[in-house]
Write a structure and sequence with these properties.
By secondary structure, the protein is mainly beta. The protein has a domain of about 70 residues. About 5% of the residues lie in helices and about 25% in strands. The protein has a five-stranded mixed sheet, with no helix packed on it. β3 and β4 form a beta hairpin. The radius of gyration is 20 Å and the shape is elongated. The relative contact order is 0.17.
Length: about 120
């Protein structure tokens, strides 16, 4: 049986690094602009195809993915959804415009003890 389903991201699912996830190079993608964290794409090599979720893309162009159980056909509905990484920035207010988080990210964390916690 010959598979004609497109491959958005060529990958050998047997290649895993210290993360325990399969990985490949971003520049091998059919359209690298579509490979963003949270995106569902078709990945594979040879006759192997699977719908995967892009877990991350490193600054070096390494893409980690997690396969979605089931066939490409049973997961086809996931391929038409906009990844959260693209939707959320438009839905969330700009922290600068709303006064930031109010958290001093350079301050040392405060150690909680029974004396300084309320409860």
């Amino acid at each position: 049986m010959t598979t004609t389903t497109r491959i958005d991201l060529p990958i050998d699912f047997n290649t895993m690094d210290e993360t325990g996830l399969p990985w490949t190079f971003l520049d091998e993608a059919a359209d690298p602009s579509q490979i963003v964290p949270g995106a569902h794409v078709i990945a594979g090599s040879g006759e192997v195809r699977a719908v995967v979720v892009v877990v991350d893309v490193t600054p070096e162009g390494i893409v980690h993915v997690c396969d979605v159980p089931g066939s490409v056909a049973s997961n086809a509905h996931l391929l038409d959804t906009e990844p959260a990484s693209r939707c959320l920035p438009d839905l969330l207010p700009d922290p600068v415009e709303v006064g930031g988080t109010g958290r001093n990210e350079t301050a040392q964390p405060k150690v909680e003890t029974p004396a300084n916690t309320s409860g």
